[in-house]
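Hey, quick one: can you model this chain's 3D structure?
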Amino acid sequence: VRPFGVALIIAGVDRKGTRIFVTDPSGTYVPYSAVAIGGNSDEVTDFLEKNYKEGMSMDDTISLAISAINLKSDEKGIKHIRMSKIKSDTKQFEKVSNEELKKYAQAVGGSSQ
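Sure thing. Here's the predicted structure for all 113 residues.
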């Protein structure tokens, strides 16, 4: 019996390209192109499946992520969002600044608060 468990989204870049996996408490992992976990994750994952397209630009992908987070979040805007990105060409991890998040939120017509 496992009294505690955790689900994680693990993403990165390796020799095979960009990859995203979801792990569940049993240790099972499943690859995805775009996915959400947590409360209302089924609806958010449906939104991502309908709107994510292979080959999207980093800018479009970040805007989509902000839209997905705000879709079911009790708190709208970007104040509650912390985001990082890994570019597939450099394989470098970098945080997305609040100023960048504001720009992306405005691009999707959302609040930058």
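One thing worth noting: The chain has three helices and five strands.
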